[in-house]
Amino acid sequence: MALVNAKEMLTKAKEGHYAVGQFNINNLEWTKAILLTAQELNSPVILGVSEGAGKYMCGYKTVVGMVNGMLEELNITVPVALHLDHGSYEGAKACIEAGFSSIMFDGSHYPIEENVEKTKELIGICNQKGLSLEAEVGSIGGEEDGVIGAGECADPKECKMIADLGVTMLAAGIGNIHGKYPANWTGLNFDVLAAIQELTGKMPLVLHGGTGIPSDMIKKAIDLGVSKINVNTECQLAFADATRKYIEAGKDQQGKGFDPRKLLAPGFEAIKATVKEKMELFGSVNKA
Ligand SMILES: [Zn+2]
Known about the structure:
By secondary structure, this protein is α/β, with parallel strands linked by helices. It has a single domain (7-282), classed as TIM Barrel (Alpha-Beta Barrel), CATH 3.20.20.70. Helices cover 48% and strands 17% of the residues. The protein has 12 helices and 10 strands. It has an 8-stranded parallel beta barrel with strand order 1-2-3-4-5-8-9-10, surrounded by 9 helices. Helix 5 packs parallel to helix 6. It starts with 6 loop residues before the first helix and ends in a 6-residue tail after the last helix. The structure holds zinc ion. Residues 86, 140, 144, 178, 208, 230 line the site of zinc ion (ZN).
């Protein structure tokens, strides 16, 4: 099945009270692990690509080529969207050009008027090409490719203003942050989430920084209208941990254990297990 935009899968998720996972990719193993798990669990999935990861993978065209090749050669039949994560205005245009099916324009660092203006222009282009567009209101804390935010909460009225422009999905800061949560984190702000949901109605809401948010908070967020949850760091930690264990056990020095197909296998399996766990938690299993 060819890439699809994220509109239909997220509309269904919002109506069905579950969430679709966005799993960020970094290389071939990552992408293959996520796609195979989605297929095995019959779940829709969104592959996230940050601008940094896009550069690392040689550029957006390489990413599109790799993903499209896998969809065909792995016989992936579940809905898959290829989504730019935290795109700049220029990055958004480059990904539209390269063949992504979904774009996030992160204009949260612009004054709201400029965020509105640039978002409007990109909505026009995405509508014309049949792509979905995610916008962000209120910067999400932690590190987003080198930009450190403080974990603030979005203004629900600004969320409504951006939602009304016709974006497909809306990311709003509700105290969530990227990366590992600090010990003194006070949790998600469900009052703000409820106020945003109240004003934006059917708009699918996006929760960034899914790593380390306790399961009960994830479930409550889904109840309050979150239909897309971004997972990145958790797969990285699982991959690193499994790879370290393999090497510390000296397995790379036994037989042909140095073969990258063997060396990277435990990390690959660890990503699959993490994705499976998240899809089960988010409720997207058998929703393809
Ligand atoms: Zn994010």
